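Field reference: sequence -> structure
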Amino acid sequence: MPELATARKERLQTALLAWGDRHRRDLPWRATRDPWAVLVSEVMLQQTQVHRVIPRYREFLARFPTVADCAAATPADVISQWDGLGYNRRALNLHRCAVAVVAGHSGALPAELDDLLALPGIGPYTARAVMTFASEVDVGVVDTNVGRILARVGGDRLTPREAQAFADDLVPSGDSWRWNQAMFDLGASRCGKATVDCENCPLRADCSWRGVGLDPAVTSAGVSGRQSKFEGSDRQGRGRLITHLRSSPVAIDDVAELVGWPGETERAVKIVDQLVAEGLIEQIGKQVRLAQE
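Structure field:
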């Protein structure tokens, strides 16, 4: 990983913390240290824009305010509450996680990294996000925006291991919550993928890139690439089917028409089979519905 001189690292820390305190976005999940509320926000924010998440986050927690409330619901209840967020598998994973926490941790999300990683649907990013934003553990949280900043500051592409080690090394002792929130805000407002505002970046003086030459963030660990086309994709068809199933069961023979693929029965059956295998829906006779167990 990049090795920064102590003085340079301290300048970066001081500059970003001060900037973050002035520019921190007022987001509802930043007003809580409840591990469940933090987990819900982090799962929702994966591949979904902040403005779309805010109302759904509030509604979801009103419906499932605790881990136990979510675990006691059916998968169909949780998937229905996920309406408007897309990537419905995340809802199912969140439900499975809640069930596991009730069964294995008496309904309280664990605070240790290994325990969090052992839960369904929780990967390295989400585990560390819960640790720092709920318990203020000194760990770096590397999402696509943070990965971009790390590569640019360090001046070189990073492997996943290097990116996490660099992120951890930069966290000021005792200030992980402020630091990681500031990194998120910087990536969203100054150090974007296409829009870069180096002139007004608090890290400019100690950044290795500063907008000059090849961008080291391209293909670096954690930095998202170009997403495949959504219009007409299987992802779109899957989402349309789940949307219909939130209202009522659907006859298998009607799936192709409902998802916008008239005449493509084989393709429609394929996504039905996929969704059944993933546990999102279930087939009852010649109908499919959202999973009840």
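Note: The chain has a mean pLDDT of 92.
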